[in-house]
Amino acid sequence: MAKPYRLISRSKSAHAYPLLTKTGFPLPLVELDIVDLAGAKLPRDGTSVGEIVVRAPWCTQGYVKDPERSEALWKDGRLHTGDLAHQDPEGYIHITDRKKLIRNQVNSVNESR
Predict the structure, then answer these.
(1) Reading across the β-sheet that carries 93-98, which strands appear in turn?
(2) Structural domains in the chain?
(3) Tens digits of residue pLDDT in 49-108
(4) What is the pTM of this model?
(5) In the chain, which end has fewer C-beta atoms inside a 10 angstrom radius, N or C?
(6) Roughly how many angstroms between the first and final C-alpha of the chain, as a whole number?
(7) Where are the beta strands (DSSP E) in the chain?
(8) Is the pLDDT of residue 25 over 50?
(9) How far apart are CA 80 and CA 48, in angstroms?
């Protein structure tokens, strides 16, 4: 991810510099999409949150000696990062959360009932 660089005062809020709060945008040779739970590509509207999936020549092929996790990592031929994000119309990505953390929170809530 490329990240724009600007000098800012630490006293300024994130709202004054919205570009600096974003992760960046995909580099050349990186196919990056944000998808919903069904794997459908979400629009670049800056509000639709989904999982980041990527495909690039240098992505890992999987986990060492763990074919089950490797298969889940590469579902649908794309590497599922587990990061939840949205992408604005200019292509900048803003990571908002982790998919695994949310799943664990939901499970712990369900278990306590």
Answers:
(1) 31-35, 50-55, 79-87, 93-98
(2) 18-112 (2.30.38.10)
(3) 999 999 999 998 899 999 998 998 998 899 999 999 999 998 899 999 998 754 454 444
(4) 0.70
(5) C
(6) 41
(7) 31-35, 50-55, 79-87, 93-98
(8) yes
(9) 17
